[in-house]
Amino acid sequence: MELHHGQTVERIIRRNGYSIAELARIIKVNRRSVYNWFNQRHLKPEIIFRIGSVLNHDFSSEFPSLFVKGETIGKSTVHYAESAENSSGIEDANWKDKYIDLLEKYNELLQFCIKNKGIVLFTLSLQYLLYF
Asked: Checking DSSP bridges between strand 67-73 and strand 76-80, what pairing results, if any?
């Protein structure tokens, strides 16, 4: 049976007693992104590594096909390993992550526009006038 990356990561996060909101804040992503990661069968090694760094957990024992124990990257003790069988799942996860990041940036822009409605409307009007 194939290992579900998201469920494995979620189990370790909850076992260590970390708050999802706190983890999301430290990783600098939306809480919804973390919950979406839990539903993904394949996660990018970079995401798993970032979570492991926050939790101070070495995921090489859970994901030996993604990480090699004992090699270093900077201050870390984990190295990414390529896996041909996971490449399509990782590629799908890449697009999904890019889409989620774009939605988060769009949401931030909307919140900024709501807070600064007058400034944004003035700027858009000015740009419109300059364009024509």
From this structure: antiparallel
The H or E element spanning position 53 is: helix 45-55
Taking the C-alpha atoms of residue 6 and residue 38, their distance in angstroms, rounded to an integer, is: 4
pTM for this model (two decimals): 0.50
Residue 65 structure tokens: 């096909």
Look up the domain containing 73 and give its range.
Answer: 5-131
- For residue 45, give the CATH number of its domain: 1.10.260.40
Single out the residue of 49, 62, 71, 73 nearest to residue 5, CA to CA: 62
Tens of pLDDT, residues 70-101: 544 444 444 434 444 444 555 666 777 778 88
Which tokens sit at 130? 């300059």
**Helix or strand holding residue 71 (H, E):** strand 67-73
How far apart CA 33 and CA 26 sit, in angstroms, is 13
Q: Report in angstroms the alpha-carbon separations of 103 from 63, 69, 108.
A: 29, 35, 9
For the chain, what is the domain count?
1
